[in-house]
Every structure is written in structure tokens, then in C-alpha cells.
Specification:
The chain is mainly α. The chain has 2 domains: 30 residues, no CATH class; 64 residues, no CATH class. It is built from 7 helices and no strands. The radius of gyration is 19 Å and the shape is extended. The two termini are 31 Å apart.
Length: 117
């Protein structure tokens, strides 16, 4: 959907044979998956820096007792966060170094980088 909106806003059609990656580079737009990863990592940093008694920390560390159902395990939120941290190359213990964490996890946002002078 996001590529459709970029094409529509710029007046480019599918007949022009421009790849979606080229459109994103031209307008400085990051793939939506990158933005979602950025938000998840921002939330994770917030949770990891929270106190042990905070609601978000308790919910993050909560383990459901009992057996898992048979078959392929479902994708868990913790698995997604673990994969995101692995992709950016940081360890969760480094969340307290906010500037380093922010630098590694941020992606270019066209709305903020374009208007800065």
C-alpha cells in the first residue's frame, strides 16, 4: 500500500517501470517494516529501563504456565523483539545507553530529516 501511495503522489505509474526501492530512495522513505521495527525497539528500550515493579516490566517478563499446544509454535512478541535486537546488533543490556541505542535503532524519517536546517 505504501508504494501505491508514493506512486500516486509522484505521478508515476506502473508503466514507467520504476522499482519500489528506487521510489523509496528518490523520496527518502524507509520501508514500513523498518519503521515498525524502530517503534518496537523504542518500546523495548522503555521497558528495559523501567523499574522491576512497573506494569510494563512485569508484563514483559510474564511467562504463561502450562503446556504449549501440539504443532508448530506460534510467533511470540518476545521472539519478534529478540530478532529485532539481533538485526540491529545491540544487546538488551545496552538499553541504558540511550544515545547508542537510539542511534542504532533509528531509521531516516522523511518528515523529520527533510525539514531540519
Amino acid at each position: 500500500m505504501e508504494a501505491k501511495m508514493l506512486r500516486w503522489a509522484s505521478g508515476v505509474t506502473r508503466l514507467d517501470n520504476l522499482r519500489n526501492e528506487d521510489m523509496r530512495k528518490r523520496y527518502g522513505v524507509v520501508h514500513i517494516q523498518e519503521k515498525m521495527r524502530e517503534q518496537r525497539l523504542r518500546w523495548l528500550s522503555h521497558v528495559l529501563c523501567a523499574t522491576k515493579q512497573s506494569v510494563e516490566k512485569i508484563a514483559h517478563e510474564f511467562e504463561v504456565p502450562g503446556k504449549w499446544p501440539r504443532g508448530r509454535p506460534r510467533q511470540r512478541w518476545a521472539d519478534t523483539l529478540h530478532k529485532d535486537v539481533k538485526i540491529i546488533g545491540l544487546h538488551p543490556d545496552q538499553a541504558h545507553e540511550r544515545s547508542k541505542w537510539r542511534l542504532q535503532s533509528r531509521r531516516a524519517d522523511p518528515a523529520t530529516t527533510r525539514n531540519k536546517r
